[in-house]
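Worked Example 4.2. Consider the chain below.
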Amino acid sequence: MPNGTLYLIPVPLAENASAKSFTPYLTDTINTINEYIVENSKTARKFLKEAGLKTPQSELIIHDYGKHNRDSSVKEFFTGLLAGKDVGLMSEAGSPGVADPGSEIVSYAHQRGIKVVPLVGPSSILLALMASGFSGQSFTFHGYLPIDKIQRANKIKELEALSERHNQTQIFIETPFRNNPMLEEILRSCKPETRVCIACDLTSAEEFVQTKTVKDWITKVPELHKRPAIFLIFKR
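Applying the procedure from the previous section yields the following structure tokens:
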């Protein structure tokens, strides 16, 4: 019996953003499968309902690969796939496998010869890049920068130098409750003419995306505490 297909199903980035986040093909797909590997069961069930799931939730098979289950082997999630069943993979928000532990699931699927199909949906990293006005030909996503203040400042300066040397957009994130200190360090560490884009609450009613030079940001620093944000640096 041939293996099933692993579908990578994006999840909305914000509340009340479902209509912006799924396609008719996604709705059709979730109504052909009843087994999912998810980062957050509650989030996954809510989104499936909003996306038009017709299958009763009681009939769903949900495998949780959240932070409390990451020490266990992913092999246990693949019984259905190896038996020919199609299965969906879902992140807590955004696109699975992108800045997301779901990449381990995808890697294991490839090792087992399982077909992987990514579905169209939101990625905060790409949405921020699109809206920044920075180079989309060459860019790097660095994830989280060091927490230590000295190391973080040095890293920001390093990214600024890389951007100037390679004409490359540098992208990174921070835990929402540490956004304000991160922005303060960016403005303190970067040169006045370096451009910085802040993109937060993407796809929500409170969405905020602006690109300014460091010297212009300093005149009016936005409040970012507990707001999901992406930071982008570009220096010519």
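The longest strand covers residues 139-144. Strands lie at 5-9, 35-38, 61-64, 87-90, 115-118, 139-144, 169-173, 195-200, 208-213, 229-234. Compare this with Example 4.1 before moving on.
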